[in-house]
Every structure is written in C-alpha cells, then in structure tokens.
Amino acid sequence: MPKVMENIQIGFAGCRIALRRCCKWLICSNRTIEPREQYEVLCLGLTGAGKSTALATLVGEPTEGIEPTSGFNIKTLPVNDTVLNIKELGGTDAIRPFWKQYFDGVHGVLFVLDASSGEVSLKAARETLKEVLSDSTLKGKPCVILATHQDLNGTATVVQVEQLLQGILHGRKSMVLPCSRGERQGVLKGLETLTDYMTASQK
Fold it and tell me: Which positions does UniProt annotate for Mg(2+) binding (predicted)?
C-alpha cells in the first residue's frame, strides 16, 4: 500500500510539473512581441570616399572590385535593438544635386569622408557636408562622420578632421570617428553612436 501511495504522489507531481510547463507555454505564446524602433539613415559622401566599402564590410560582403554607387544602395541592419534603413546615395557631381530629394523622413546622417584624399578634396567634402546640414529638413538631425582610410600614411587624423569641420556641426549631436578599410568595428561604432543619438532625440 505505501508503494501504491508513493506512485500516486509521484504521478501527481509529474502532472503538476506538466501543467506548469503548459501554462508557461501558453503565456509565452500569447505574449506580444515588441516591434523594434526603425530609423531612416542617409549615408552620404563624395564619390570614392568609401561608402559602399564601409557598408559592405559591415554586412560581411566582398569589398574587392566595388564600383562607386551610381544611384543609391539600400541596407537594412539591426543595431542596438533598433533597425536602421540605410540609404547610400552616390557622390558624383551629377548625383549630389538630387540628394535633397531623399531628406524627408530622415532621422540621422552618416557622412563618409576620405581622410587620405588631400587638402583640396577634404575642403570639398567640408563644403558638401555644410550644404547638406544647412538644409532645413535636416535641422537638428544627428550626424556621424567616418574619417576613412586611417590605415594609410598621410591620412588626416580625427582631430584634424574635427578642426576642418569646426563651425558646421553646431546645433546637433555629432561625432567624428576613425575607420580603416576592411575594418568592421569602425563602421559599427559609427552606426551605434548614430543610433544612440537618434534614440535620444526621439525621447
């Protein structure tokens, strides 16, 4: 008789465990999954600055033989519990006048600057960024600048790029970050920083 009672108790214990697991499964299956916040990001820069290479490096795509973007290129990436819809626009003289058509609805700007391109090109990049940020549609929108090609000799440092851009980044959250060709971490750091800025501006 004691053996029978023991078996009954074991059976009841098993039923209780199964019931708890069943209830837990039902609760989890009915739980609403919170949608991720989505942000629209423009990736801009002069042609040859390294925009396509930077984004390809980030998503693990081959970077050899990448041609300059002639129109636009779109990447969707999860970053810091958000989703970034990144639209990279070509940077040629013929395409830049059409950039402003893509400014509506943008939450942040990732500007890629070839820090190894020399004084003339750096000044041209500065004037281009100044024109972009002066547009009323992008007023106050955060901006992160990737100073690329830091692995090359003679490249402008982050401090030098900050001095170059002095006076055109006021009124918004911004940062200049270093980036080397083929280095994923530099690009990711830039997007994480931009995401933090965009999230803060939405609160």
Answer: 52, 69
Cβ pair 177, 186 in contact under 8 A: yes
- Phi-psi region for residue 131, left (φ > 0), alpha (ψ -120 to 50) or beta? alpha
Residue 52 annotated as binding site: yes
Do the annotations mark residue 45 as ligand-binding? yes
Question: Quick one: which of 98, 82, 92 has its CA closest to 193?
Answer: 82
90 token code pair: 């070509």
Q: 150: which 2 tokens? A: 């830091």
pLDDT tens digits for range 177-198: 999 887 889 999 999 999 999 9
| Residue type, position 201, single letter | S
Count the alpha carbons within 13 Å of 167 in the hemisphere toward its beta carbon: 4
Burial 57-80, CB ≥16 within 10 A → b, else e: bbeeeeeeeeeebeeebebebebe
The answer to whether 117 is annotated as binding is: no
Specify the higher pLDDT residue, 40 or 50: 40
pLDDT for 90-111, tens place per residue?
Answer: 999 999 999 999 999 999 999 9
Q: Is 116 annotated as a binding residue?
A: no
Return the beta strands (E) in 12-170 as ranges: 37-44, 72-79, 82-89, 108-114, 143-148
Asked whether residue 46 is marked as a ligand-binding residue, the answer is: yes
